[in-house]
Amino acid sequence: QICNQHNAEAPILEQAFCRMAQTEPNLDHDISWFLLPSYWAKVVVALISFLCFANSYDGDFVFDDSEAIINNKDLRAETPLGDLWHHDFWGSKLSSNTSHKSYRPLTVLTFRINYLFAGGFYPVGFHVINIVLHCTISVLMVDVFSILLGGLQFTNKGRRLNLAPKTSLLAALLFAVHPVHTECVAGIVGRADLLCALFFLLSFLGYCKAFRENKEGHSFSVFWVLVSVLLGAIAMLCKEQGITILGLNAVFDALVVNKLNVLEFIQKLLRKDKLLENAVLLRKGLLFRITLLMSGGASILYIRWRIMGTGPPAFTEVDNPASFADSLFVRAINYNYYYSLNAWLLLCPWWLCFDWSMGCIPLIKSVSDWRIIALAALWFCLIGLSCQALCSEDSYKRRILTLGLGFLIIPFLPASNLFFRVGFVVAERVIYLPSIGYCILFTYGFSLLSKQAKKKKILAVAVLGILLINVMRCALRSSQWRSEEQLFRSALSVCPLNAKVHYNVGKNLADKGNQSAAIKYYREAVRLNPKYVHAMNNLGNILKERNELQEAEELLSLAVQIQPDFAAAWMNLGIVQNSLRRFEEAEQSYWTAIKHRKKYPDCYYNLGRLYADLNRHIDALNAWRNATVLKPEHSLAWNNMIILLDNTGNLAQAEAVGREALELIPNDHSLMFSLANVLGKSQKYKESEALFLKAIKANPNAASYHGNLAVLYHRWGNLDLAKKHYEVSLKLDPMAPGTKENYNLLRRKLEQLQKKGG
């Protein structure tokens, strides 16, 4: 047969032989839309997708970025590359019971490369890569949609034809500008979804290449099928959803390559029709290809399971309350309600939130809840579309609807709670891939409306309006992701019942020093979720600093009662008890914290302070030494050791500790200051002076640095310099203890010397 459809790359193809005949209607015939050559269509998609998210390029590290990037040791050069293959996305060992089991080593590897090239944690490079990835994916979507909407056909030279240039451009634009993608693009941890999507699409396009040398459907390239499986494995190493491409490739093979009628196939299967196997499965190699896909998928999943080492991750009730419901009915009805919310975010992505857990979506507990309407509407639509996909006499309609539903549902399955419990209620990032199915269905619906409409241009203008609104919404949402303050505050109006939203707003305010406002949000977080131990811990910390010790103790005691292994709360409780001079209880709290977190340098540091207050000097030194062993850069522990040894007259030991500390932390001015004091007392004036001056250069506004250097000069007999630094010290801090007295003594001495000289 000869194809004579309009093609974006060659306006009129005459006598172009197609490997697969197309007799179905073409969506492009029914819509009023832009017809651009393939190259320019991709340029337009790239530019518009860039425009949507460009303003996120200089954003901060926000929300989960802190744990996945800043606090993730796997990004640092000193961590062996091999560790990435044994750690989860957050840098924890996969064998650990606390691991989230999110195995994404290739994503972490790209973070590490970003970190090394930037020379540190500079977010611009991270954001730029995310934007480029989304633009690349959006460009690839032009080719993907041209296959899904127009079919897979090649010229006699093996060149793939774009038989749906207008609809593929529309669908790619819908994908590129969808606001629900903002979390993946503007949030750096969303790179997992972007990389997964990239290799997901490459796997699909690779699978399509298997049929490029196809002659009337009798042969195919095993090589490209295997490449597709490999790319699917790479996609899964970026994020777990990637494995679903193998199932979609099988669906595509059956529906598009073999033009299988699913309903007819099932009917023949039930009748045990012997001809079915030979005519469909074996003749075109479908069974063999599906066997390759299934074998590859099973092998990948087995290896993944072996690497994971233990069972599924342990999530808490606040992460996914429906999954902890005792009633199967409550679980099922809420899962379905979550599905309807995901569908609504695709249809109307206006209310977006960085986190949907912790009371943001209250559980449905009875059929009288009006929200039942939402899941009823979802299933009404899904069943209606499924019936059309199975039963329609129009083979083209069956194919489009089945592919649309397949790309909508199959990539979503890992997040559906059907196979295992997930650690979220709704997550915008997980519908990055399912939005492909939404774009197919939207475009098909638009073509049906255009076919019936008399004024097609009005309909086209309406779709352009939707695209424009989405572009503006993307730009607005991207700006909200630029900083934690904007991101967290944007969620208050969307999820006012979400305790985590109030907690994060409070934490952001506390980090900026606005403790009074932070207290308000922490209290609201605890009110919304009375078991929110992290909010209690942070609120207790602020109250402790404000010397409201009684309430701080009550909150921290409640936190450890709710979560007995909460090491940070135990340590903070010990600090409060120490301030209340209940030393035995404080010591017990510190040791309980260390019991639950063996490597806890800050707790050893606070334990050392307790022992120092009790004049248990040996115990204090041992505790601080433990802190420095666990964290060699723990400046406060080193300083306290030097000061305690200095105060107890062990100058030689204090000097040795000070020198050891400065070797590890050579630019720490507080250590320079402490060691300079020790050296001054040991009459090593020259070395002491050098350290004082170096400390002052690093921190010129420290009154004590100038004051103690003045004392050194005073002892050394360099009275003019002593006078100068006393005066600088008093200027910086007129109330500095001892400095005024020493300065007055020096002045009297200078006056006496002047009189003698006179």
Automatic annotation (TrEMBL):
PANTHER family: PROTEIN O-MANNOSYL-TRANSFERASE TMTC4, PTHR44227. Its EC number is 2.4.1.109. The keyword Hydrolase does not apply. This is dolichyl-phosphate-mannose--protein mannosyltransferase. TPR repeats lie at residues 499-532, 533-566, 601-634, 703-736. It is found in: Endoplasmic reticulum; Membrane. It is a multi-pass membrane protein. The keyword Transferase applies. One of its GO terms (biological process) is endoplasmic reticulum unfolded protein response. The chain crosses the membrane at residues 39-57, 131-151, 163-182, 188-208, 220-237, 243-266, 286-305, 372-391, 403-424, 430-449, 458-476. The lineage of its organism: Eukaryota, Metazoa, Chordata, Craniata, Vertebrata. GO terms for cellular component: endoplasmic reticulum; membrane. Pathway: Protein modification; protein glycosylation. SUPFAM superfamilies: TPR-like (SSF48452). SMART domains: TPR. Keywords: Endoplasmic reticulum, Membrane, Repeat, TPR repeat, Transferase, Transmembrane, Transmembrane helix. One of its GO terms (molecular function) is dolichyl-phosphate-mannose-protein mannosyltransferase activity. Belongs to the TMTC family. Residues 311-383 form the DUF1736 domain. It holds the Pfam family TPR_16.
